[in-house]
Amino acid sequence: MAQKWVYFFGDGKAEGGGKMKELLGGKGANLAEMTAIGLPVPPGFTLTTEVCTAFYANDRQYPDGLTEAVAENLRRVEELMGRRFGDADNPLLVSVRSGARASMPGMMDTVLNLGLNDRTVQGLIAESGDARFAYDAYRRFIQMYGNVVMGMHGEVLGDILDGYKEDRGYKLDTELTTDDLKQLVGLFKSKVHEELGHPFPEDPQEQLWGAIGAVFGSWMNHRAITYRKLNSIPAEWGTAVNVQSMVFGNMGDDCATGVAFTRNPSTGEKIFFGEFLVNAQGEDVVAGIRTPQPINKAQGDGSLPSMEEVLPECYAQLMQIQEILEKHYHDMQDIEFTIEKHKLYMLQTRNGKRTARAALKVAVDMVDEGLIDQEEAVMRVTPQQLDQLLHPSIDPKAAKDFIARGLPASPGAASGSIVFTAEEAEELAKAKLKVILVRVETSPEDIHGMHAAQGILTARGGMTSHAAVVARGMGKCCVTGCGDIRIDRQAETFTVPDGRTFRKGDVITLDGSTGEVMAGAVPMVQPAMTGDFARLMTWVDDYRRLKVRTNADTPQDAAVARRFGAEGIGLCRTEHMFFEAERIMAVREMILADDSYGREKALAKILPMQKGDFKGIFSEMKDLPVTIRLLDPPLHEFLPQDDAEIAELAATMKVPEQVLKAKVAALEEVNPMLGHRGCRLGVSFPEIYDMQVRAIMEAACELIKEDGFDIVPEIMIPLVGHVNELTLLKQNATRIADAVCSRYGVEVDYLIGTMIELPRAALTADQIAQEAEFFSFGTNDLTQTTFGLSRDDAGKFLPFYVEKELLPVDPFVALDQDGVGQLVRMGTEKGRSVRPKLKVGICGEHGGEPSSVAFCHRIGLDYVSCSPYRVPIARLAAAQAALADDC
Ligand code: PEP
Ligand code: MG
Asked: Contact, 361 vs 367, CB < 8 A?
């Protein structure tokens, strides 16, 4: 059978359905679904994503049979509408819109009012009885088509319009008369001809195919590519194209258009939420040109009448439809509608983008409402959203210097230096500076700057403006519609009502939950882990198999991690304890000592402090497992770098400055990451590890004896490459540990294990497991050594690799499952082949990154360990991975 390229929907029947998102795109599938469940949807048809794929595979040629299929479907629409495409007396007008599998708001192109020309506009006048409306639709069409399809810069025709209005002293588009609009159509067309060297197409068929081509073409435009990259959407998916008969929200005061969410997308509250405009077309609502009105009385401050008041019957019908949609889709919906002469039409529904806070509330509420089960709720909140919930908010007790107020478009709080362009935002963010992007309004071209900024502030636009929608999706704090600020782009400043002027580089703070803008950096507080959050996390823990530990070096970090649900410490980096002010001198003395006697003398000073550290950590973790890593970094990192510090140390150690300088220089290494570090230090200077093992064991013995704790210390030896290293160091550690136990008269079930951080260790993991009682994959070093990429230097060129798609992501952020991951898998299997109960975890940065956590689950690790703030994210990712197994 010939391939079906086009799917029809209309009059209660649809060839496609909601489950066909891959083929019809999100918009097409949902239009079909809404049609099929009897909602009022203008008829139309969808060109599938396979057309897009074939189009690109075939050097931008359409597949055979497409032209005929489009013609046939157009005929069906004509029949249902009782109008003909291109007919001068009774013309059918259509919209042409993109619709990818995943929603990409505003990223691709749309053309409305297609089919208008000098002849059909007469038909539209006759039919609507409204010449002004018809010419307004015509001039909008030329503007959109000129820009989207013909590639003219949006401002060219926009400037003509603005100039025309200015000449006549008009402020609003609504002041333009029929004659004005007619003239504008002429002016626009001449300008198109002049700029492009060919006329604006009159033939509706040519218009239609031009628009279809532009929408497919827009799949590969710069902003769509950026959006896909940011949201991990594969280019192969392609977009569908939806051709749908037009309905008009701009035919008079009994017409309107709007967008709404079935619940509040910022807070998640179950309140129908949205905006609309009387006598307007869809793009007017999101463009921020006119201030939209609230959809119901529950919103807004009463200054603008709501749809509930202005168009009560349509509002009542919309209320019913939104309920039907939520029950049908079992999720919060984001809908678009148009009212043409009191008749309501649904133009779109999709699962609504929401803030993290809303995602959590909606998921938990829907479980309570019986719309979804707990498993589904766990799958509904993404680890990235949870991450946002763990971000700080403004400290309610902090003093605030309010300068302006806008709409609370996307919650959270952020401070940063003011920038006025997306480019500056990106540049400064690269230099690790925090910035707030301040714009009159944002457009899809700003997306890279929005991504780079900490927060976004716009002077115009409502709660559904581009800035608001995109920021919510990104989890960025955003304040929109802040009419209080007057931006001077030229001077790179903005002024606020009290007369103050803020310049580029000045620091401000945004509160996206209240819409407040403040001068300076306002202190923030950490979020609470209670209520809905706590409930969801208990469900999460029911489903996951992987344990989640934390990387913590202090009792304070350990306490935070426990609050976040850590089930132990997977990595305590002891070197961080060495840097504290009162210890560093003793550490330096130890490093620079001439012999083991000198080293032991210095270590004796450190021992009680290390013991104190471990007691603090053990006490905080109570009976949970704690893995302590013996000293790892190259010793040079602890030494003084400048002359003044060397002189001070020389005086303390009572050695000549020059001698000390020479020693410091001698410890320098060409390649320290592959040098004298990790277990190699333990081999060369056994006294260091002896002291650390003694401190660990004494701390454990004292707590077991005095407080009855049940501690199983896990002593971890880093950077082992050969089993012989471990054999030697394990012997030493065991000797010390046993001696401490017998001195205290306490039995301690300590374990001695190793980190697997070198490819050789993974390859010989069966030999290493003869000695090691546990493995912890140090995937930071393992990534470094597997790729041969310096952890410290790769930042200079890795971003380029990601940008050029040589690597899908930075392998220091998300585990390279094909390469490094294979070593982890192999190391685990080999280790368990000789020690079946071998406990295996991962403690590199990847332990808190969702895709890496899922991988660890799949290959059967026992736990992941990550920084305290990522513990809830890892718990959720582990539960989602386990649930995905069951699917
Ligand atoms: C690792 O290498 O993954 C690790 C956890 O150790 P560090 O980052 O301290 O080298
Ligand atoms: Mg390491």
From this structure: no
Q: What angle do CA 595, 601, 605 make, to 5 degrees?
A: 140
Phi, psi of 286 (to 5 degrees): -85, -20
Instruction: Provide DSSP, 604-634.
Output: HHHHHHHHHHHHHHHHHHTTS-EEEEPP-S-
Mean pLDDT of the chain: 92
Res. 412 pLDDT band, cuts 50 70 90: confident
Catalytic residue among 466, 636, 846, 857: 466
Confirm whether 153 is a catalytic residue: no
How many other β-carbons are positioned within 10 Å of the β-carbon of residue 391? 17
- Cβ of 553 closer than 6 Å to ligand 1, yes or no, is no
Give which of 858, 863, 883, 849 is closest to 383, Cα–Cα. Answer: 849
pTM of the model: 0.79
To test ligand 1's pocket by mutation, which of 674, 677, 720, 755 has the most ligand atoms within 8 angstroms of CB? Answer: 755
What per-residue confidence (pLDDT) applies to 636?
A: 85
Rounded mean pLDDT, 462-472: 74
Residue 409's contacts (CB-CB under 8 Å, 6 or more residues apart) are 266, 463, 465, 467, 468, 471, 472, 478, 479, 480, 481, 512, 515
Segment 146-159, tens digit of pLDDT: 998 998 887 889 89
Contact 258, 276 (CB under 8 A): yes
pLDDT score at 798: 84
Concatenating the DSSP letter of every residue in 276-330 gives EEES--HHHHHHTSSPPEESSTTSS-SSS--HHHHSHHHHHHHHHHHHHHHHHHT
Residue with CA closest to ligand 1 atom 10: 781
Decide the pairing of beta strands 435-439 and 413-419.
parallel
Could you identify the atom of ligand 1 that is nearest to the CA of residue 781? 2
Give per-residue pLDDT as tens, 549-589: 999 988 988 998 999 999 999 999 998 788 776 788 888 88
Active site residue 466: yes
Cβ of 844 less than 6 Å from ligand 1? yes
Query: In Å, what is the CA distance from 470 to each residue of 446, 465, 486, 514, 530?
Result: 10, 9, 23, 18, 28
